[in-house]
Amino acid sequence: MKAVLATDLSAASEATIESETCLNCLGRIGVEEIHLVTVIPANVHAGMPGIDFEKRRKQGLNRYRDVIESAGLDVETHVVRGTPHRRINGVAETVGAGLTIIGSRGKSPLENRVIGSTARNLARTTVVPLVVNRIERAADDPEVIREHLFQRMLFATDFSANAERAFESFSYLRHATQEATLVHVGTPKDPGLGEGEDPEVELDALAARLEDWGIETETDVRQGDPADEILAAEAEFRPTTILLGSRGHSRLRRLLLGNVSEDVVARADGNVMLVPPERTA
User: Fold this and answer.
1) Which of 90-94, 159-163, 218-222, 258-262 has the lowest average pLDDT?
2) Burial of 24 (0-12, 13-18, 19+ CB in 10 A)
């Protein structure tokens, strides 16, 4: 599998690249080739006073290449200009990537704005599964918050087609996953289940599939606001990564990314993996 790893050469994005544990987790799920992508915004120019982009870029990318290659992964680098999330998606499509990874410091809209806005925009538009790797905030030398990316997964499902597609990610995540918690949040109108269907039975069926792969699994059915309850489950179970589909039930284009996914990406304490729907021709 090829993976795109987006970096703005900041300390936050560097933390993901320099975490040996994170790189090992990627290797376990079948990633063999990393495509490092750094995007120069269209309004930034090398001739701007006090900015030596070329030197900084070469130094950063060469250092990152050494770290990734020492973890046994092949590396390609891409330096492109334009709107970050569009160019990152473009590279992912061009190289046939199966995963995109980006570091994010999380909740504050005032800190690390460039990579933060890029993570949010990628969450809305990603064409391949996206891992938002949560980085420490308010630290000069930040580290990733939970290094073992896929060791303990919290899978949130509304039983939609996209949620099922997200669950199928366990076919490769299982090589790095030891524990999983499967969560469904019921709401007054739950279009994910037909009349007479029981969410606990549905979750038990999914759990059985994971347990066949040797993953210790538990289920949790909740009631309330989906985003709030998923984040409450994160606080209770302390997963390394929350896994969910990036689209809800709405057929309206402006609501293709359900508010649940967007809220979880913005508010989660740890890592989040979003799986978009399968693209149609």
Assistant:
1) 258-262
2) middle
Contact indicator for 82, 39 with CB cutoff of 8 Å = yes
Position 59 in a domain:
yes
The answer to whether 254 and 222 are in contact (CB under 8 A) is no
Distance CA 188, CA 192 (A): 12
Same domain (yes/no): 113, 170: no
Q: Which domain holds residue 50?
A: 2-134
Helix (H) or strand (E) run with residue 69 in it = helix 53-70
142 in a structural domain: no
Q: Is the same domain home to 81 and 130?
A: yes
236 within a domain of the structure (yes/no): yes
- Tens of pLDDT, residue by residue over 203-250, are 999 999 999 999 999 999 999 989 999 999 999 999 999 999 987 544
The helix (run of H) or strand (run of E) holding residue 61 is: helix 53-70
Residue 223, strand partner residues: 186
Domain count, the chain: 2
Share the mean pLDDT of the chain. 82
DSSP letters, 211-277, are HTTT-EEEEEEEES-HHHHHHHHHHHH--SEEEEES--S--SGGGSS-HHHHHHHHH-SSEEEEEPP
Q: How far is CA 86 from the centre of its chain?
A: 16
> Residue 54 maps to which CATH number?
3.40.50.620
Tell me what pLDDT residue 121 has. 85
- What is the SS3 string spanning 2-20? EEEEECCCCHHHHHHHCCH
Q: Tell me how many degrees the CA angle 164-173-171 measures, rounded to the nearest 5.
A: 55
